[in-house]
Amino acid sequence: MKQISTLIACIFSASLITNAQFTESFDGTALSPCWEMTDATVTNTGSNFYLSLDKKQSTSVSTPYLQPTSNNIVVSFTYWFSQIKNNTTRTMTVTVGNQTQTLLLPITTDHVDITLNFTVPNINIWQKVTFVLTGDGANNIEIGFDNLVINGVSSTKTACEDPSPITLPIKLVNFDAKYNQPNADLSWSTAQEIDFNRFVIETSTDGINFNEAGIVFGNGESDSPKNYSYQDKNIKANKGLIYYRLKSVDNDGRFSYSAVRIIRIGATANTMFLTTYPNPVVTDVKVTLPSAWQGKTIKLEIYNANGQKMLGFVNTNASQTEIMNLSKMNKGLYIVKASCENEIAMQKLVKN
Fold first, then answer.
1. Higher pLDDT among residues 129 and 60, named by residue
2. Which helix (H) or strand (E) holds 322?
3. CB 92 within 8 A of CB 105
4. What are the φ/ψ torsions at residue 292 (nearest 5 degrees)?
5. 28, 86, 155, 188: which could form a disulfide with 47 (CB 3.0–4.6 Å)?
6. CATH for 275-351?
7. Taking the model in full, what pTM does it have?
8. Cα 248 to the chain's mean position, in Å?
9. Mean pLDDT of the chain
10. What whole-number distance in Å separates Cα of residue 286 and Cα of residue 317?
């Protein structure tokens, strides 16, 4: 079997049982729609499918959005190790809503059943279940992940985008993040604010676990455009990707999240390198550009395996993260090509 540093068996086919249960299990088919993977590549070995992560410390997989039928959600699954060294770090976190449980996985080749209980305060808010497997990035890990059953959610209602009713009286027009060494400059605008309180700036180094970085208070009541900015001077990482999002909170405590923006810092910040997230992608892909290209004219293009151009656009004032909608493209392997002046960067992309 191909050796990889982190390996999760992850491809499931839907098997729906009751009105309050969502299940996924192996059957050798392709990944069901709306599942998301971060920093990983799908690998097929025989009849099994795996989510592989080469030479990195963590990988994640998230279910589609699920509609709760109860305030109590029970997540159960089976795992087993097929390759691991005894001193290898191996943990898994499972997240539903704002609740996360962390497991230190005992090393065993036997199939182990795990059951976790979560509580959601509002069954009108659709939920994802996210699994993050973490290793030490040095030793090979091979882990099977099967028989996922989620109780307390609808068996028939799933979605790629969050269909939860949005009641927050604010219209966020845009949100941008740029890396101006050594700080990150965030800017955004609103078109309307009613009974609005504040923006909470949240940051993450893995795109999954976010922490509060700062607060910017809103205007409260406004029906005209308002501009905001925030400078993050507390970037602790010295290289890699930093993820940002806005949490918009009204006076009643209701909140919503913006789309995620990404910057690249450190030694690779100015190299001709692209990052695509998520990859594989279902609808929108976020393309992180070299920081030296910010504010310049860039061209983004997508080519199929035959070299045919499928999509493209030009931005005369590029941010470090650009978004491309691929919902009308067929499944398959593509190449993302970005160019700025005389520089070119490319990245493979899988469309599910």
1. 129
2. strand 321-325
3. yes
4. -70, -15
5. 28
6. 2.60.40.2550
7. 0.45
8. 19
9. 77
10. 16
